[in-house]
Each structure stands twice: as C-alpha cells, then as structure tokens.
Specification:
- This protein is an all-alpha fold and about 80 residues long.
- It has one domain.
- It contains 4 helices and no strands.
- α1 packs antiparallel against α2.
- The longest helix is centred in the last third of the chain and has 22 residues.
Amino acid sequence: MSRPDPTVELKALTALALDLTRVDPERRPGAELCRWHSELAEVIGETALPVRTNRELLREAVRLTRLRRAAEAAADPVRAS
C-alpha cells in the first residue's frame, strides 16, 4: 500500500493534533502518533523536532506544513502566485 500525498497527511496530522490539543494540551502524544510525525517529516525531507506534549505536536505539524508549502512554492512559482 502506498502512502497518501504528504500534503494530505500533513493536513490529517494537523487536524488530529489540534483535536488532541483542545482536549488535553499538556498530555504526551502516543507512540504511534510520534512515529507518524517522524516518518512524515522524513518523507517531506525535513527533520522532526522532538515533541513532549500535544501542543508541541500541533506546533510541529504547523511548522512542517509551512515548510512543505514553501518548498512547493519554490518548485512551482507560477502556481504559488
């Protein structure tokens, strides 16, 4: 089974992190979620920063999303404008 588009995965990760942050911002994310975050960062060519709380996971998901958008804009400047 192939991976979904990384942009779609980032949206899903961000949405999940937002929901978890709303419920319990200081709780530690589960191992599977942390693994997904690390793998996804690697897929998009970035380094995953360590996350200790759901809030940090949300910040990291937003950071990765911004980096992904910047990379896409640099690769296709016509589409980005």
